[in-house]
Amino acid sequence: MNEREYDVVVIGAGPVGENAADRAHKAGLTVAIVEKHLVGGECSFYACSPSKALLRPIHATRASQRVQGSVGAQVDPTGVLARRDEWVNRVGTSDELDDSGQVGWLDHAGIDLVRGEAKVVGERLVEVDGTTRLRARHAVVVATGTDPAVPDLPGLRDAKPWTNREATTSRRVPDRLVVLGGGVVACELAQVYAALGSTVTVLEQADRLLGRVEEFAATAVREALDRDGVDVRLGTKAVSVSRPGVSGEVTVELDSGDTVVGDELLVAVGRRPVSDRLGLDSVGAQSNDAGYLDVDERMRVKGVEGEWLYAVGDANGLALLTHMGKYQARAAGDLIGAVATGRDPDPDKTVPFATGLGSPQVVFTDPEVSATGFTADEAEARGIHTRVVDVPMDSAAGSGLEAEGYQGQARFVVDEARGVLVGATFVGQDVAELVHAATVAIVGEVPLARLWHAVPSYPTMSEIYLRLLEEYGL
For residue 400, what are the domain limits? Predict the structure, then answer.
């Protein structure tokens, strides 16, 4: 067997693994990264990048239509799909995706790439495809992400449904698309395909969409999908699926006895961990009931002697968001570098404490939903004495310039005992860029009385911060 030795071995070459590898390498360590599919991972080829590449032309068209004096803007499905193809580096007219750009970055950074499927076979020992053994002198980092969850519904797997992977890379727009689920992926892609010409039906078991955001935000997205002609059915459970052939129409039977028929079925009901394929039981790694690896505050996997195994990103289940995984990876990489070189770890850089403050997130529907920190209900559940402040987005002067008849809402969730922000949500056109300022205020525990002195430029949509603070009483 071919054997190599490195200071650090990272399993998974998505953005999270790349960040962990990069930080460890910048500390002066030798690093190998193992990837069985595409360097760049799910986010680059099947999730974040392609979905936003599909959504942006739709949003830009609608934004143009909402401004007096701008006429003629239309969504061009062929152009939208071509733009997506550029973002995922599709090779010609094939279905092959090209990760050479990402591989080039690894080469430039000085990180060795090992292609194949990894398995942990001992302390600091990773085997790839049973042919190559990688020994880590200091640490092994698990950054394997997650796979789309496909529930055990009778007939579902036989029907060859789409997941986010097929939906974000499809070359064709089905006449009828049925979507199982009502989360972020379901809502974003339902809006994409409706804009591209599909008749879309969304089936969600819960009584609302987007269960992890403020209810007013979920309601706004529901109303937008209704406006777009999407048939949204809440409180609806699918009980079986049938499809005569892999290219025939698919029928979904509901618990009501009704059926919904489509040309494609998109399953968007969540994600599942894949770290169970790595053989981590052999080194004592602990997982929770959902299968995610248990980690301490420094992302070290519990149950493993010697503190050499780390799990970052989706693999630990703390926050299934690329940016939060990258944040954890940077902290873990810095910690590994410090320990390996005999330096005292800087807790300000090696403990990703913000993971527990409520992750910032954007739902890139039209309207957008951008949120950070805790919702009002989450803060209350944590025993925080809160005050909720709501203002309409059109109270900011910049919103009226952004679009005629601008629609939206903003919310602050304030910890009254400390006088600081613990949550914020913005709903409306182009609100994605508003959320970072709120994230800074939450992580920095900026007193609202001090935040009042952060003067927003006029006339921008950031003026909404002033309106929220005025509504609070400052």
Answer: 367-472
Q: Supply the CATH number for residue 206's domain.
A: 3.50.50.60
Query: Does 48 show up as a binding residue in the annotation?
Result: no
Q: Identify any residues that bridge with 388 across adjacent strands, giving them in sequence order.
A: 413
Position 93 scores a pLDDT of 79
Cα distance between residue 366 and residue 97, in whole Å:
28
* Residue 173 known to bind ligand: no
* Residue where the block lists tokens 């070359």: 171
Distance CA 408, CA 228 (A): 17
Do the annotations mark residue 183 as ligand-binding? yes
Whole-number pLDDT of residue 170? 96
Note the pLDDT tens digit of each residue in 238-265. 999 999 876 789 999 999 999 999 999 9
186 is in an annotated binding site: yes
Question: Which is nearest to 180 in space by CA: 159, 160, 155, 163?
Answer: 163
248 is in an annotated binding site: no
Answer yes or no: do 263 and 282 share one domain: no
What's the rounded Cα separation, in Å, for the pair 198 and 231?
A: 11
43 labelled as ligand-binding?
Answer: no
pLDDT tens-digit series, residues 71-92? 878 999 999 999 999 999 998 8
Task: State yes or no: 204 annotated in a binding site.
Answer: yes
188 is annotated as contributing to ligand binding: yes
Strand residue runs (E) in 374-452: 386-392, 408-415, 420-428
Question: Into how many domains does the chain fold?
Answer: 3
CA separation for the pair 358, 187 (Å, rounded): 21
**Which of 146-182 are b and which e, b meaning 16 or more Cβ less than 10 Å from the residue's Cβ?**
bebeeeebebbeebebbbbeebbbbeebbebbbbbbb
Residues 30 and 177 in one domain: no
Same domain, 318 and 277: yes
